[in-house]
Design a protein that fits this description.
single chain; Aminopeptidase; Aminopeptidase i, Domain 2; 2 domains; about 30% helix
Length: about 425
């Protein structure tokens, strides 16, 4: 297992995926190279045993699968789920703010980012634009916008009170100087048109995310850590995709499902709470010739792994963690438990994932949140409830979750790929 190479592959994947739409495009490139065949939801399917397929919904969610050699009713599905979106800023539909000699871009907070971490960073825009009847991916490679900080001389309590932003009035991003007699909105559309290689008047709408252009890197005395944006949750996405691609001739049908909108609740056609996963599994079952009875038998024999990053112990803040559950970077996948079902893990599913780790010869850890702090959640509960299958929530440990720049362990990414590979082959 070349741990550093796996970490570098993750960094390359993240850096090529500055938005959920780019993440899906990056996955398509890897899947196509691995011999997966793209399916369209609006077309009839003809699946073959042992073949590899994927399907995209909404441009930002993707489900890939390898049909098993065994009877689907007898083996069921092995499913790993993750999400393609990350918290940050999104550009509003009419974003141009011109005044005081400056042009700024209005943004909306997407999910729950640590707002202060986006200040004074080299930010740019990426996403998609709709050009008449065609949708195009768009990305500005260079720093395009910025959120300059207020000097300490005008915010004397910043180090004691923390850096705080009003989400409406203090987050517009500086784009440039306002030219006398110029049309700021037309100039912004011109920027988009140049990047999309189209006419400005043909752009009808857009969805644009703000991202940090600084590339990911390895850091630490022995380069044992990873630093990049969107580790939550492109780290899990890349691990699941890598595990599926490496799975050959499985007995059970193996599915890797990647959903948009997890950070805002998953309530969408592309989200984990939508019909994408149930639609896909139903069509796979129909192609396998399952009747309603056999479909239910298949689901009863299935297993779901919800993969989302986990909170690593930070020695500078020991009181933030539950005693006995201080998971460590580079010490293996984390099995996450919450009695209130924010995570789906139970005793049996935890033990099953432990066996996967033992089979893969990787260490594992267990995590529970402090009882007096609100616990985050994942796609696990909603997917498990929809499918009615046993489920476990796991993730690689990381620092600074939801920061513009997050950190994780080099070894942990390779460990997670190995553990998920064992889950697919079980």
């Amino acid at each position: 297992m070349n741990e550093k190479q796996k970490a570098l592959e993750l960094i390359e994947f993240i850096d090529s995926s500055p938005s959920p739409w780019h993440a899906v495009a990056s996955m398509e490139t890897l899947l196509d190279a691995a011999g997966f065949v793209r399916l369209e939801e609006a077309e009839r399917w003809q699946l073959e045993t042992g073949r590899r397929y994927y399907c995209v919904r909404g441009g930002s969610s993707l489900i890939a699968f390898v049909t098993g050699n065994g009877s689907l009713a007898e083996t069921g599905f092995r499913i790993v789920g993750a999400h393609t979106d990350s918290p940050g800023f999104r550009v509003k539909p009419k974003p141009v703010l011109a005044g005081d000699g400056m042009v700024r871009i209005a943004v909306e907070v997407y999910g729950g980012p640590i707002l202060a971490t986006f200040s004074d960073r080299d930010l740019s825009l990426a996403g998609r634009v709709v050009v008449r009847k065609e949708t195009k991916l768009l990305r500005f490679e260079k720093p395009l916008v910025r959120l300059p900080n207020l000097p300490i001389h005008m915010n004397r309590d910043v180090n004691e009170q923390g850096l705080k932003y009003n989400k409406q009035t203090e987050l517009p991003l500086v784009l440039g100087l306002l030219e006398e007699g110029g049309n700021a909105e037309a100039s912004f559309r011109g920027l988009l048109a140049d990047a999309a290689k189209c006419k400005a008047e043909d752009i009808l709408s857009w969805e644009l995310a703000v991202y940090d252009v600084q590339e990911g890197c390895l850091w630490g005395a022995n380069e044992e850590f990873i630093a990049d944006g969107q580790l939550d949750n492109l780290g899990s996405t890349h691990a699941a995709l890598s595990a599926l691609i490496s799975t050959e001739r499985p007995e059970a049908t193996c599915v890797a499902a990647f959903f948009d909108h997890e950070e805002v609740g998953s309530e969408s056609a592309n989200g984990a709470s939508g019909s994408f996963i149930t639609d896909m599994l139903s069509r796979i079952g129909a192609q396998a010739g399952l009747d309603d009875e056999d479909r239910r038998r298949a689901m009863a024999r299935s297993f779901f792994v919800s993969a989302d990053m986990a909170h690593a112990y930070h020695p500078n803040f020991p009181n933030a963690y539950e005693h006995g559950h201080k998971v460590t970077v580079n010490k293996g996948p984390v099995i996450k438990t919450n009695s209130n079902q924010r995570y789906t893990t139970n005793a049996e599913t935890a033990a099953r994932f432990m066996e996967y780790c033992e089979k893969a010869k990787v260490p594992y850890q267990q995590y529970a949140h402090r009882s007096d702090l609100g616990c985050g959640s994942t796609i696990g509960p909603m997917v498990a409830a929809q499918l009615g299958v046993p489920s476990v929530d796991v993730g690689s440990p990381m620092w600074a979750m939801h920061s513009a720049r997050e950190s994780a362990g080099v070894k942990d990414h390779a460990y997670m790929i190995a553990a998920l590979s064992a889950a697919f082959s079980s």
